[in-house]
Amino acid sequence: MLIRESGARLTLIELGDLARNDLPPWLERHEESLREIVEWASSYLSRPHPEVGRKGHVCPFVKASMNRELFYLAVESGVPESSAETAEALRGYRDWFVEIARRHGGAAPYTTILVLFPDLPRDKVVDIVENTQVLLKADYVSHGLMIGEFHDGPPVKGGLWNPEFRPLKSPVPLLAIRHMVPADLPFLKDDPEQLAEYLRRYGKETPPAVPARPPAGERGADR
């Protein structure tokens, strides 16, 4: 378990903490949600799916992230008043992500943080999770990061390779943080500033093939 004392106290749960049943008392009531997301990441994100529309796992790097023990979970308890309040809380995870990834050297691209919102009532999921992602995306992109929203709303956004597929469906609402990669071009090309940041980092290093008309928006797992 990692703890960061900087302004707000932030905690990251490692897979080993759950394997050892080693959670602090304040997290015990969220243990079921944490385990549910780990199972979802293992059995859904880390495996092929017939509806994705391309070969490979739903998320190409989650399994490697878990195997390398660079897969972290966080819990934001309670019900925030607004997406702006949630966005402010998530800024701390952005900075911490950069610090943690830097320690891993060549394995840094596999660093992943999932921030869970297990107390959100169903009628607030879309407002809090999706709107927070919109508020944070440009800021995260400017740091070379991507942030994607997952929930069982169900998500409106279809997959990049199959618009009928809903890759962002998860059993617990969450926001996922990861590094930007060359394959993220379809998610950034419609915003001039985000596209400029992508080109600054990757230049002509673009994916060899992307759908001709990708649906608008962020599809963090389906790439």
What does this structure look like?
By secondary structure, the protein is α+β, with helices and mostly antiparallel strands. The protein is 39% helix and 15% strand. The protein contains 8 helices and 6 strands. The protein has helices at residues 15-19, 25-28, 31-45, 62-67, 83-103, 122-142, 185-188, 192-202, and strands spanning 2-6, 8-14, 71-75, 112-116, 145-150, 174-179. It has a 6-stranded mixed β-sheet with strand order 1-2-3-4-6-5. Helix 5 crosses helix 6. The longest helix has 21 residues, at 83-103. It starts with a strand and ends in a 21-residue tail after the last helix. The relative contact order is 0.14.
Q: How many DSSP helices? A: 8
Q: How much helicity do the residues have?
A: 25-40%
Give the overall shape: globular
| Amino- and carboxy-terminal Cα gap | 29 Å
Order of helices and strands: EEHHHHEHEHEEHH
Number of strands: 6
Strand order of the largest sheet: 1-2-3-4-6-5
* Uncertain segments: 212-223
Bin the strand percentage: 15-25%
Give the helix/strand class: alpha+beta
- Taking all Cα atoms into account, the compactness measure Rg is 17 Å
Query: What is the overall pLDDT average?
Result: 85
